[in-house]
Specification:
- With about 180 residues, this protein is of the alpha+beta class.
- The protein is globular.
- The chain contains six helices and eight strands, in the order ββαααβββαβαββα.
- Strands 1-2-3-4-5-6-8-7 form an eight-stranded mixed β-sheet, with helices on both faces.
Length: about 180
């Protein structure tokens, strides 16, 4: 499968390559972005290079798809969105995303997530999309619930970040729920 390019009114979701190292580093080196990301903030550009390599390997191995979120108006990469833990046989994946803080609360994440959900349910024929979110990340929980995700429960001590264990909330959206919301 060729890498799927997706488009919305304001965004183009593209494959992330090494030409995007500076953009990715500029986002994931910010403490406010990684605070609820599940990993420590980047301190070296090589970390962004390794992440891009991992995104490519996951895509080639059919274990994930990660898109760069590019603004159509100026071609700037403002974040990423994608599917982690993709299991085509079990028809499920987990969604993940991050945006540069300069673009928070402008509807870009919602626009990108909606397009990825549509792709996941209608082109990949997935049945379940999950999400794992820090309970303190109320903005992300609200965003997912706006798209129909339902809280399932708490995973205690699920993520180790900054030398601490953190609980996470599990949310999910099933294809029949998505289909009803699109009518």
């Amino acid at each position: 499968m060729n890498f799927p390019i997706l488009e919305t009114k304001r965004l183009k979701l593209i494959e992330i390559t090494h030409q995007h190292v500076d953009d990715l580093y500029g986002i994931l080196s910010l403490e406010e972005v990684t605070r609820f990301y599940g990993t420590n903030r980047f301190t070296l550009q090589v970390e962004a290079t390794r992440l891009i390599d991992m995104f490519l390997k996951n895509f080639l191995d059919k274990r994930g798809i990660r898109w760069g979120i590019k603004l159509k108006e100026n071609q700037r990469i403002i974040g990423t969105v994608g599917l982690n833990g993709l299991q085509l046989n079990n028809k499920r994946a987990e969604i993940g995303y991050e945006l540069h803080p300069s673009f928070w609360r402008m509807g870009y994440a919602s626009e990108a997530i909606k397009e990825v959900l549509d792709f996941s349910f209608n082109r990949l024929d997935l049945y379940r999309i999950g999400a794992v979110v820090y309970p303190e990340n109320e903005a992300s929980i609200h965003l997912l619930m706006k798209h129909g995700f339902i809280k399932e429960g708490l995973l205690r001590g699920y993520i180790h970040q900054n030398n601490q264990f953190h609980d996470t909330v599990v949310l999910s959206l099933l294809k029949p729920e998505w289909d009803r919301s699109q009518e």
